[in-house]
C-alpha cells in the first residue's frame, strides 16, 4: 500500500464516528468493532480479519492526539487543492510532483506520527534532521517500526486483586519464520541499496531547495531484496497465532492498560516491533466491591446488635477479621479494617470498608413481638418529636 493510498483512507468512516468525535466516543466505537471482528470470534473469515486490521489501524491514529491532529491537517491540506499541479493562487511550481510529498511522508507506506512535521522541516532545512550531525543518518531512515496492537482480557475479581500470570493467545501479524523477518528467500540475504548506499535516505535538488526523503528503491529500509521470501512475499511478516505469557500485577483495575514493549506487530523487513497494549476488564464479585485500593462490603446486623453493640466477624480476601460495633450504631455507618483491601505496588494494601445495615425482620415470634412491645413502651419520647417541633416553629 502506498502512502497516498493510506492517507486517502477515511479512518472516521472505518470506525463509524464523526470527525468531531471525542476520544471516549472513538474508544467505545473501536472496542465494539474489535470484539465483533476479532479473529478468535471469526475463524476462517478473511473479510472479518481485514476489517479487524482496518479498525485497528484507524484506532491507532485517531486515539493518539498528535497523530490525529496531523492526520486531519494533511487531509485538509491536500483536499483543498493547495498542492495540485497548476492550481491557482500560488499553485505548485512546474516540475513539482505532489506524490513526492506522499512518498516522503511515511518512509515505507505508514504514517509515522511526526512524519507530517518532519516533511516540511526537511523542505526548508535542506534535508538534515534536527540534531543530526555530519555522517549521522536521519532518524526516519531504516526499516519502519511495526504498528501497536491492542487486545482485551477479562479477569476474575479475585485474580485482578491478587495478581495472576496468564497465557495470552493472539492472532496478529508476526515475524515470518521462514526468512526471520528479512523478507529474503532462503539462502539469500538482502543487499545494501545502491541508490542510497544503505542510509535509507536520498537528497534531491529542486531549484533553491534541497529535499531529503526516504529512498524509493528500498522504501527507507537501506537494503534491497532481490529474491523475495515466498511465505511473506518479501514483507518479513505473516499473520499467525502466538501465545504470550502476561503478568497482571496485584491490584490491576478495570479499564487499565498494560504495555508490553516490542510485542506488537513486527516492523517491515526486520524493523523494530510495535508495542502490545492489553486492556483489562474485571468481572464483578458477588461479595466485595472496590473503590480504588479499598474493598467495600455491606454486612447486615440485627436491631439488638446495633443498640447494644457487638463484636462482628466479617470476611476478608484471605480469611476473616473481627470488628467492634459500638453501642448505638446507626444503619449505614462504615467501619474500617486497615490493610485488608487491595495490595499496592509499595507492598502496602488498601482498607476494607464495612457498611453496616440494620436488618428489619419480616416476621416475629410471639415472644419477640412481646419483648419489642415492652421495649417500645419503655423508650422515652418518640424519635420524630424534634422534627414535629421544628415544623411547628416554621408554621
UniProtKB/TrEMBL annotation:
Region (Disordered): 127-150
Co-factor(s): Zn(2+)
Zinc finger (CR-type): 163-241
Keyword entries, A-Z: Chaperone, Cytoplasm, DNA replication, Metal-binding, Repeat, Stress response, Zinc, Zinc-finger
Subcellular location field: Cytoplasm
Domain notes: The J domain is necessary and sufficient to stimulate DnaK ATPase activity. Zinc center 1 plays an important role in the autonomous, DnaK-independent chaperone activity of DnaJ. Zinc center 2 is essential for interaction with DnaK and for DnaJ activity.
Subunit structure: Homodimer.
The protein's name: Chaperone protein DnaJ
Amino acid at each position: 500500500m502506498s502512502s497516498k493510498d493510506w492517507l486517502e483512507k477515511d479512518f472516521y468512516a472505518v470506525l463509524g464516528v464523526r470527525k468531531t468525535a471525542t476520544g471516549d466516543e472513538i474508544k467505545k466505537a473501536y472496542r465494539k468493532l474489535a470484539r465483533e471482528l476479532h479473529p478468535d470470534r471469526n475463524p476462517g473469515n478473511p473479510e472479518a480479519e481485514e476489517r479487524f486490521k482496518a479498525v485497528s489501524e484507524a484506532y491507532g491514529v485517531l486515539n493518539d492526539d498528535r497523530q490525529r491532529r496531523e492526520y486531519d491537517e494533511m487531509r485538509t491540506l491536500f483536499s483543498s487543492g493547495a498542492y495540485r499541479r497548476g492550481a491557482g493562487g500560488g499553485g505548485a511550481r512546474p516540475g513539482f510532483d505532489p506524490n513526492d510529498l506522499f512518498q516522503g511522508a511515511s518512509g515505507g507506506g505508514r504514517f509515522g506520527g511526526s512524519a507530517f512535521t518532519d516533511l516540511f522541516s526537511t523542505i526548508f532545512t535542506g534535508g538534515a534532521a534536527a540534531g543530526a550531525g555530519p555522517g549521522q543518518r536521519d532518524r526516519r531512515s531504516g526499516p519502519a517500526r511495526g504498528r501497536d496492537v491492542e487486545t482485551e482480557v477479562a479477569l476474575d475479581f479475585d485474580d485482578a486483586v491478587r495478581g495472576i500470570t496468564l497465557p495470552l493467545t493472539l492472532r496478529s501479524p508476526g515475524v515470518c519464520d521462514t526468512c526471520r523477518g528479512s523478507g529474503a528467500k532462503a539462502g539469500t540475504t538482502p543487499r545494501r541499496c545502491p541508490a542510497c548506499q544503505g542510509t535509507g535516505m536520498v537528497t534531491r535538488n529542486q531549484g533553491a531547495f534541497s529535499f531529503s526523503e526516504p529512498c524509493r528503491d528500498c522504501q527507507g529500509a537501506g537494503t534491497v531484496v532481490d529474491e523475495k521470501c515466498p511465505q511473506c512475499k518479501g514483507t518479513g511478516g505473516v499473520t499467525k497465532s502466538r501465545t504470550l505469557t502476561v503478568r497482571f500485577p496485584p491490584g490491576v483495575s478495570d479499564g487499565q492498560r498494560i504495555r508490553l514493549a516490542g510485542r506488537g506487530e513486527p516492523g517491515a523487513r526486520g524493523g523494530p516491533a510495535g508495542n502490545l497494549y492489553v486492556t483489562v476488564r474485571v468481572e464483578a464479585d458477588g461479595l466485595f466491591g472496590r473503590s480504588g485500593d479499598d474493598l467495600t462490603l455491606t454486612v447486615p446486623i440485627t436491631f439488638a446488635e446495633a443498640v447494644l453493640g457487638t463484636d462482628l466477624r466479617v470476611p476478608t480476601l484471605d480469611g476473616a477479621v473481627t470488628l467492634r460495633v459500638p453501642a448505638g450504631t446507626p444503619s449505614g455507618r462504615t467501619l474500617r479494617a486497615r490493610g485488608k483491601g487491595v495490595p499496592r505496588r509499595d507492598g502496602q494494601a488498601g482498607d476494607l470498608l464495612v457498611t453496616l445495615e440494620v436488618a428489619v425482620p419480616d416476621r416475629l415470634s410471639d415472644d419477640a413481638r412481646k419483648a419489642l412491645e415492652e421495649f417500645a413502651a419503655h423508650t422515652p419520647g418518640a424519635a420524630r418529636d424534634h422534627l414535629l417541633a421544628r415544623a411547628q416553629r416554621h408554621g
